[in-house]
Amino acid sequence: MKQVVFISGKGGTGKSTVVSSLSLIVHNKMMADCDVETPNLHILIKGESIERRDYFGGKKAVIDYSVCMQCGRCWQVCRFGAISKKLEVLPMKCEGCGVCALVCPCNAIRLDDEKTGEVYVSSTDRGTFSYALLDIGGEGSGKLVTEVRKSAEGQCKGEEWLLIDGSPGIGCPVIASITGADAVVAVTEPTMSGLSDLERVLDVARHFGIPAFVCINKYDLNPEITEQIERFCQQNGFPVIGKIPFDPAIVEALKNFKTPVEAGNVEFTDEVVKLWHRLVDELKKLTV
Amino acid sequence: MKIAVLSGKGGTGKTAVSVSLAALIPGSQYVDCDVEEPNGYIFLRPRIGKSISVELLVPTVDVQKCTGCGLCARVCQFNAIAVVRGKVLVFPEICHYCGACTIACPEGAIKEVPRQIGVVEISQDGAFIHGRLNTGESTGVPIVDELKRNLKEDAHPILDCPPGVSCSVVHAIEGCDYCILVTEPTPFGLYDLEIAVKLMERMGIPFGVVTNKASEGVDLIDEFCEKRGIDVLVKLPFSVEVAKAYSQGILPIDVDDEWRARLALLYEKVKRGSNK
User: Fold this and answer.
1) Is B10 in contact with A196 (Cβ distance < 8 A)?
2) Which domains does chain B have, with CATH numbers?
3) This model's pTM is above 0.90
4) Which ipTM score applies to this complex?
5) Domain A2-45+126-287 has CATH 3.40.50.10790
């Protein structure tokens, strides 16, 4: 199964719109939403739940006050400010590193597994779909992302593709989304912010050695910056495989819980079909 | 008064609102806490005067002293150390710089050395500050912490937060007097707003909502906020002028008087609603 991850650097450029549309275009595939902080794909891809489980991706320090002799060593050594002067564990700050337990002279501190989110797998008319929701302020979003991908892989029945909707940014969830993937498609928009963020996210893809391609969404909103993006991509060896025009009807379709493909937006659909064919061709070139 | 601007969903207009507020409020300080993808500099065009390297302590092993016992790898909760055939391997990108390995090593063979993960840059006049995570690094939280050490408390800091509700956002909004949640009237915007509201309730910070790209009439954000007793502070209409200006790195308030008026109103409402 080949894994293609849609990322963007900047948020709100249209990753989920493109992935949900591809879910109606690409055959023999599975889908995963790796934006575990604010997953959105399940809003557009409905199905029947076949799995729902808690994920314990972190640890938290717990102090047994019946044994604690209030020496304060834990407070001194914690680098995350997660133990207050009154020697209480502040759960939002505790990273579960265990240094406090290591230095406690009376073994009053233990690390408990902590639920950090939930993983869901559902069966849909477009294929199996996995996603997750990180608990508010939960640690280890990267680990949960890896779990979402594993859940999809575990359900694989010979599907050819796994389409992954990524998260904005360049940090741990993005790194966890693209590690070991076959290709990255960066969805961008023709704004100075979009370009600045694109450059950084492509740098991450290059850093981890993943072949990367670019799709410019709403490309006609600012033709000069679109040109600038194309020039940048050409100079740096990132093929531009899609250019999607701006159309207010797309937002209207989304407001009605429909992908632009379902809403009958022909121009958009054509462009996404082309994007997919170009991607498949480019990937073939890579394996030759 | 420290104001944080966040959203849950990306691309709703946090930066457009933050930089506009910064430009409107005399003597304010703009703080870009989206260290993974900072964009505020594009609009405010600061002259950087000072750069601070943000470094973390990561372990290095003195092979002369190391006996290969493997205790360091066993205490590391993040699998950032492995001991293979008596040799210690450190993976600095996933190290949480907690110091457990150094404390655990019975031979005193581990020393922590600083390693740069990004920078904080401050403008000459001090009114602009942002952080930048090096690509390939996994956490920007220490950079956000460094930004917060450089806040000018008397200057109305405006903290432009990253999307999502991760630890970076928690660190950024901690200690703020008011949070502005920027959203858009789509099912995505609403779903992510609900998540951001949960974060607000957990942190106990006063907050209100700004609906960007709004059209006329009551929308799904109004309905949600009405039901939950949340203030919709202002609605910012979708405007092609603003979208164009934004794409070129021009402040929305410089091209649209409606935006300017509504942002001034937003600031008044925030002042009334905040802790201070």
Assistant:
1) no
2) 3-46+127-273 (3.40.50.300), 56-115 (3.30.70.20)
3) yes
4) 0.92
5) no
